[in-house]
Design brief:
3-stranded parallel beta sheet; Rossmann fold; PGP-like_dom2; 5 strands; about 10% strand; HAD-like_hydrolase_sf; about 200 residues; HAD hydrolase-like protein; mainly alpha; HAD_sf; binds magnesium ion
């Protein structure tokens, strides 16, 4: 799983965090379409595209991580779906660019303790980290809300699953061509079950 915009339903929080962080450097506020139309990872690339200077990018990213430590809701269905996946024997994990402190804040404030077997925070290169973890299971799935997530998942040999209403506009995410798109998070259970059977049959 990706974290922000995927497990967390936190676009509003992210919008407030980025606007507070860039305002200190004289940059204008983003609105929701402006955020969802520009957001990309790695974070540094997005900040530079927003007009943050190389010199200030690290400080802006730190301010963002601080601003992200405010309450936000989980995406509907996430907790039950993760628990059901684990109960069915799946290995669950998070690979995120978010800081360890920011993710820990969310886990503590949403009651999502104990549902992940592996957590990788402050990841600068998702494709590389996902590739390192690929051998954890016969089939592997990565769920994300951005085209970057889909591209990284694909390149690392994962079945790529997109989820909307996150940090990127629907058209940008759709253009990345995920293997599946979640309308409801709980639909992940059916996709994992179906793909597992399909892969097993193909062998
Ligand atoms: Mg995300």
């Amino acid at each position: 799983m990706d974290w922000n915009g995927t497990v967390m339903d936190d676009l509003d929080r992210a919008l407030a965090a980025i606007n507070a962080a860039i305002a200190e450097h004289g940059l204008p506020d983003l609105d929701r379409p402006g955020f969802q139309g520009s957001f990309t990872l790695p974070m540094r690339r997005w900040l530079l595209e927003l007009g943050v200077s190389e010199e200030h990018a690290e400080a802006v990213e730190a301010a963002w991580n601080t601003g992200m430590q405010t309450p936000a809701p989980l995406r509907a269905g996430v907790a039950d779906t993760l628990r059901a996946l684990r109960a069915a024997g799946a290995v669950t994990g998070v690979v995120t660019a978010a800081s360890e402190a920011a993710m820990r804040y969310d886990v503590e404030h949403t009651g999502l303790q104990g549902v992940f077997d592996h957590v990788h925070t402050s990841v600068r290169d998702k494709a590389a980290r996902l590739a390192e973890l690929r051998s954890l299971g016969r089939e592997a799935f990565y769920v994300g809300d951005t085209a970057y997530d889909i591209e990284c998942a694909r390149s690392a040999g994962y079945i790529a699953i997109g989820v909307g209403a996150g940090y990127q506009a629907e058209a940008i995410l759709a253009a990345a061509g995920a293997d599946h798109h979640l309308e409801r998070f709980a639909d992940l259970l059916g996709i994992v079950g179906h793909e597992h059977v399909a892969v097993a049959r193909a062998r």
